[in-house]
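Instructor's aside before we start: the two examples that follow are unrelated to each other. I chose them only because their records fit on one page, so don't look for a connection. First example below.
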Amino acid sequence: MIGLATIGLGVASYLTYVHYSGITVVCTAGESCIKVQTSEWSKLAGVPVALIGLLGYVSILASLLAPDREESRLATLGLTFIGFGFSGYLTYRELFSIHAICEWCASSAVILTVLFVSALVRYLAGPVNASAPAGASGPAGAIAPAGASGPANASGPAGASASPNRQRRQRARLP
């Protein structure tokens, strides 16, 4: 997801640069991108849509780089949902009002769709290894069975790094 958000950030950065520099957007679809970029729907309340996208991708990336907690996953889900919806609206305008498709905008729409679906799955799945005590994973990330002892979750002197209170809290969370 971080990679996709970074690519989306690149697309939005390029389109924002094109808007403010006044150069012509590179487009393999002929004049379609220029038509979209100069349409009345290329701004919202005077703010370029590309800049709104840039800020959106920065926000999504920040939420992905935040510590993995329910709040950060919910923030990512909310931001990608808003981006997905706004991108859907802009795609509608491209198809039915402007009658041209900008390949940069279409790529951003695809990126936001994949990010939204991924954020939804990530949110519903919850935290990674949420029920596993710290250090309870063995080789290849397998979770050790409850009560198993060994180097990964030893309860003796070698594994004494976990406090007795923490061990009790971890056991209380097990089913």
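Example two begins here.
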Amino acid sequence: MKLWYNFVMKILIKLLLIFLMTVSCAQAETFNVLVLPTDLLNQKENYYSFSEPSEIFAQDIISNFYKERDKISSPDLYKVREKISANADLKNSASTALKKYENSKNIDYQALKKIGDSYSCEYILLVSSSVYTKQNNLKRNLWEILNISTAFDISYPYRLETTTTLIDTTNDLVIWSNKYTTKIGNNSNYFIATNYAQANEQLDKIRMYSKNVIAPSTSQNITLRFFPKTVRTIDKDIKDSNGGALNFEKTIPEAPKGNSEEEFFGETIYGI
């Protein structure tokens, strides 16, 4: 009788554990994040018809989210562009909001909430990139800079600046943001391409920078915001070789020390 009782109790305990695990999995929340590069609706008007850096970074971030399917869901960039382009009202809202963020880093919460609702996403990640030089305050498109540098044989210490900002459209909050900057060109400050092969080499280096720095840092930091105990942060120093042509500094950025005139978004949370 006692053996039978122990057998029944073991079965009941197993069933209870299975039930609890099932309920736990069912209650696990998946966060929907819409990734919007500021160049999403721009025509590829550069000489080489290359994708803009913000698009490259955005797609790699989304690909990293795919690896965390039970944690973060993000619509494919192609489908996002297709849906927005098919709706004139949505396209106008998106175009205005993205240009506003790109030019001034101001966030149009109302417009972005409207866009997020169309994809059932309460969170939106904005990604923007531009090239600047200390010779002037003008920020330009990366491939435009490549064309100008090649045509006029200019050697400036160009830097690629990328900002990523995660917003909560329900509460109109920035919950995480960061700024990444890296040198582009060789050690002599040349960023030129006299033929397509050289230009494509520059594109490959941007893609490498995306996969090694921007995408892993951004995707993991966002995952940590939603699931703080489930993701191990990536190392600050990345050891592999960059191959030369694009001499980017492959470290995860930290807040500048001292009195910096530049705004730094940092790895910050507001309102949570």
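The helical segments are 2-27, 53-66, 77-85, 88-104, 109-118, 142-152, 196-226.
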